[in-house]
Amino acid sequence: MKFLKNFYNELSIFIIFILYFILWHKFNYGDVILNNNSLDQAIQAYNFTPFISHLINNLISLDFFSKIMGNIIFPSCVSLILFIIFKKFTSSNIWSYSLVFLSMSTNENFPFINFLAGVLSNEPLELIVNRSENFEIIGFPIPAFSIFYFLILFYFSFFSLNFNGSKIYILTFFWFLGPGIHPVDGVLGIIYWSLCIIFLLFFKKKSINKFFIFFIISMALLIGYQIFTNIQLEMFVIKSKQSFPIYNLVFYFILPISIIIILIKLIKIDMYEFYSKFLNIYLLMFVEFLIILFSLNGIGVELRMFQYRITQFFLHFLYYLPIIYYLNKDEVFILKNKQLSTTFNYYLTKIIFLVFNKYKVYYLYPFCIMLIVYYVLSLNIYE
Q: Which of 75, 81, 87, 262, by CA, is between 20 and 30 Å from 21?
């Protein structure tokens, strides 16, 4: 009973999505376009074999088990670990529910924002709900297992690591195996983890022995060999014309950075706490922006392949978590600078606080309800 009481919300989100994906599998699978149903097609298209995902795909060769894993089990596990991470950062159930519901609704052609716009403009429901395609999270081993793998690694890297003993070796080993699960998410994870280690060395002045350096070099050579013997270098040259929407630039980069800078300046955030808790998040943001910048200049991976994986499910929500964390604190803490009480800075801080904290229930509860409606209407039980 104590376990149920302590983990009521975590169990609730898991059960909600287990039940939903069972219904989706029953009523939608077989009647929708599947865009994540063949690892072999992805291997042929990109001329790269993620060896671990390929091995798992071959081991679970029975179509029934593959469907259960990709349509129900791992998507539901992703919802659970997302909730745990969001709750750990925000200490808010309603924010965590909202972010998980929004993340799991990801679909390239039927985004939730189009559903909202369609409802407001009175469009026919069958045109704005997702009854004709799978949600992006559905598919085994990519992306359901690959997303789960990245999230588990991130959780233990971020919240449970003291960088002593065997933990750093274990985490480094699994981060460097990432390209064997999913090439793009794996490379992003390796760059991110390497930056974390560099930060430890130069900024926190942690000592890392020579054996660990040898271990990292060995892993890098092993993964580098696996990548470059499986893929032709010309695959990294992007010939198709690409663009990066201004909307994405503003809401995924400019806005979260601008708000946190305002908060750092106005509410006197403890910078030691800020760096300790959240520097890793901004390292991930930097890595994502770097990959996008290279891609727009014709080097790396196509943005379309990059945008609907770990970035869309997790990173773009992660960038707002420091803001929510600080604005979930008591109002006395937020507005403790009495000398600002008649200035523009005071009112700006007050507005941000009211939007993210005091009045959040007035839009987050309706938002969750609308997302649930979207999920239910996306089931083909009405035809």
A: 87
